[in-house]
Design a protein that fits this description.
It is a single chain. This protein has 8 helices and 8 strands; from the N terminus they run βαβαβαβαββαβαβαα. It is α/β, with parallel strands linked by helices. The chain has a single domain, classed as Aldolase class I (TIM Barrel, Alpha-Beta Barrel). An 8-stranded parallel β-sheet has the order 1-8-7-6-5-4-3-2. Helix 2 links the parallel strand 2 and strand 3. The chain is globular. The chain starts with a strand and ends with a helix. The structure holds D-xylitol-5-phosphate (DX5) and zinc ion (ZN). It catalyses: D-ribulose 5-phosphate = D-xylulose 5-phosphate. Pathway: Carbohydrate degradation. Catalyzes the reversible epimerization of D-ribulose 5-phosphate to D-xylulose 5-phosphate. Its cofactor is a divalent metal cation; Mn(2+); Zn(2+); Fe(2+).
Length: 217
Amino acid sequence: MNHLIAPSILAADFGNLQRDIEMLNQSEADWIHVDIMDGLFVPNISFGFPVLKSVAKIAEKPLDVHLMIVDPDRYIKQFAEGGAHGITVHYEACTHLHRTVQGIKEAGCKAGVALNPHTPVNLLSEIIADLDMVLIMSVNPGFGGQKFIHNTYRKIAQLKELAAKENPDLLIEIDGGVDQFNVNNLISVGANVLVAGNTVFSAADPLHMIRTLKNPL
Ligand code: DX5
Ligand code: ZN
């Protein structure tokens, strides 16, 4: 499949959020990545339901909601009602991951699980068949604009191998430090959804940057 581009609005200008969402609507972006941080699972707080709902009203692309929060079961329904198309929870934040994944599907959303850089891919072997997507963190979650961790390539290859056996339709999303220089390599090892925050929103021409990420040379 052709890879998907999911710009992260964590790097948008919150004073001009409507303008930035409208830019994404006009762009070749496939999804809009929405980072929710609770100040507990990660050492940062981003934004919550009122912002998500406002974004959902304007956005013309699916909202890919990445929950960096402890015990996400408490809020799955609210995120689904707030306009999430897909909900991704962290492996490290869920004691009963199977229940959480079923809850996401029951709420009518696509279900994803995210792995921190230190979390091995094979821990997903018993749940991978139930997932729509796995998100591999290529930085430590919490902040945009960090340096890409090279070991991610190995994890993508391992995940691809596991998915080939258990769930060939699985989407493999990479989040953190994605740019126009590593996008080709990431796709060639098996990534098919690429999140990009700073690369898009710090670019002189974000529309052009999204086009470059979507159609790498
Ligand atoms: C990090 C977030 C990412 C972040 C990516 O915790 O999950 O989605 O916005 O930002 P960049 O692309 O700037 O590394
Ligand atoms: Zn994210």
